[in-house]
Amino acid sequence: MILRPWRDADLAPFATLNADPRVMEHFPKTLDRAESDAAAARIRDHFDQNGFGLWSVEVPGVAPFIGFVGLNIPKIETHFTPCLEIGWRLACEFWGHGYAAEAAQAAIDYAFEVLGREEVVSYTVPANARSRKVMERIGMVHCPQEDFAHPILPAGHPLSRHVLYRLPKALWAAAKERR
Ligand SMILES: CC(C)(COP(=O)(O)OP(=O)(O)OC[C@H]1O[C@@H](n2cnc3c(N)ncnc32)[C@H](O)[C@@H]1OP(=O)(O)O)[C@@H](O)C(=O)NCCC(=O)NCCS
Questions:
Q1: What's the angle, vertex CA 171, arms to CA 165 and CA 177, rounded to 5?
Q2: What residues does ligand 1 touch, defined as CB less than 6 Å away?
Q3: Which pTM was predicted?
Q4: Which segments of 50-114 are extended strands (E)?
Q5: What is the chain's mean pLDDT, rounded?
Q6: Which atom of ligand 1 is nearest to the CA of 96?
Q7: How far is 121 from 104, CA to CA, in rounded Å?
Q8: pLDDT at residue number 179
Q9: Phi and psi dihedrals of 56, rounded to 5?
Q10: Is the C-alpha dihedral spanning 115, 84, 56, 104 positive or negative?
Q11: C-alpha angle with apex 100: 81 to 59, nearest 5 degrees?
Q12: In this structure, are residues 90 and 17 in contact, taking their beta carbons and an 8 Å threshold?
């Protein structure tokens, strides 16, 4: 697979996956075309500002765009920010092929080897088993004592509670030795 910069041609399939309730099950709502385009614009701005971001994922011979996987500096303020986050969102017809885990491994390697970061974090709602499985697959460790209420959601919202996973550089380096 290829992790690449975004193209305008990605916007239509991105809008399709953002409008899919199965993909957005663990988010507050699906996105309409304008909201999806705005999300893509924010991702592209992040690349302009930082030189990296949530890459478009292309699988040659399969599809020119299956979703995004990559690195993000979240704007939220919590006990663990500022930080570098790893994240993913794929169209559901491409789930279950290992694409997310493979792309995430490449993004993690980039964070430590190219960006020289000391740690990568990830977070999601407790019920998002697929996403948690990807986190665990790439060696991230759940830190239950650090689970938190997402600051952009009102207290008591059903998606408020989030689990926090961390991957310190030393743990990544030890796992890399074994690969
Ligand atoms: C999270 C997501 C990217 C995972 O994609 P995927 O294609 O299932 O990922 P992979 O094929 O790489 O599978 C990763 C692991 O999840 C496992 N898995 C697949 N379906 C699962 C399920 N229903 N429950 C638990 N684990 C599951 C796979 O077996 C694999 O585990 P393994 O490596 O131990 O075999 C995808 O489900 C998605 O885009 N979800 C919607 C968006 C989202 O929630 N993003 C995260 C927000 S924090």
A1: 140
A2: 23, 26, 87-90, 95-101, 124, 128-131, 133-134, 137
A3: 0.95
A4: 54-59, 63-72, 85-90
A5: 97
A6: 11
A7: 12
A8: 85
A9: -70, 140
A10: positive
A11: 130
A12: yes
